[in-house]
């Protein structure tokens, strides 16, 4: 009788353990769902820290400065460059925007007249002015700029998290390792090191690609005589951080400025951006990825569509580095472990 009672007691304990695990898992999933945008901001802070650490490592190798001194120089130098860009170009941009706001309505009227002169143009105007089409564009724009605490609040949070992660990365990495069971801690550390290496490689390749895009855009716009060609080129280089959608975002202000000189100039601007996108996608990115991180283009686009739909602008911006992280995790924790036993089994059969 006592043996049966003991079995029932153990069974009830197991049931409560299972219920507890399920409740904890459901709670964790609900927390992740409601705070996913916050997790994206944390990841953006980590990515910024990877940039600062990479730059500080370069400075340390070239100058021989101590680690923390190099970190401080990398952060201060980045802030000076960013603030200097906006300070030097802000007045010119404001002047150009005022001029654009005065001439844009007349230019739009000219575009409408030109389009209405042909059947294809009339059909295009009907599609653009359709209420459903306008509603979709409005919904996309509101989704794209959706954020957790507002754009400036998000940038503030990302910036300071990046500073904290850069200054003392070991503190946060040690805390993460302590959450892992003892037997798996060494493997987890190796995974973190692999993730850091791959993110640095991807970031190097992306920054090089952005620099090349900015240079090509500057040359093309300068040849056309587009006002503010340097500012527009730098903006195009910055937004090319976002694959597929970045070139469209970067082209929009350049086309608007081109419209001030006429429809023909705006079309030339479109042609330049299309040519640069073709060169960047088929030659620059392909060459860089062979030396840095190889990412399937279709997989990047799928990740962008999913992340953009779920979280808006931040998901679209961070879709590619998140894909890098997921690919590394799948490779290290699944693919490599799946192939290793097969290899060992094959070797054993050959020996036998």
The termini sit apart by 54 Å
- Kindly provide the radius of gyration, computed on alpha-carbon positions and rounded to a whole number of angstroms: 26 Å
Q: Provide the β-strand percentage band.
A: under 5%
Helix count, per DSSP? 13
Helix content: over 70%
Sequence-ordered SSE layout with sheet pairings:
Elements: H1 2-34, H2 36-63, H3 67-116, H4 119-129, H5 131-144, H6 151-167, H7 169-178, H8 185-224, H9 229-239, H10 246-259, H11 263-291, H12 297-311, H13 313-351
Helix pairs in contact: 2-3, 2-6, 2-8, 2-13, 3-4, 8-9, 8-11, 8-13, 9-10, 10-11, 12-13
Membrane topology: Multi-pass membrane protein
Transmembrane segments: 12-32, 38-59, 71-90, 155-173, 207-224, 230-249, 256-279, 299-330
Pfam families: AI-2E_transport
Short description:
The protein has 352 residues and is an all-alpha fold.
Q: What can you see in these coordinates?
A:
With 352 residues, the chain is mostly helical. The protein has a domain at 89-150 and 181-351. It contains 13 helices and no strands. The protein has helices spanning 2-34, 36-63, 67-116, 119-129, 131-144, 151-167, 169-178, 185-224, 229-239, 246-259, 263-291, 297-311, 313-351. Residues 342-352 have low confidence and may be disordered.
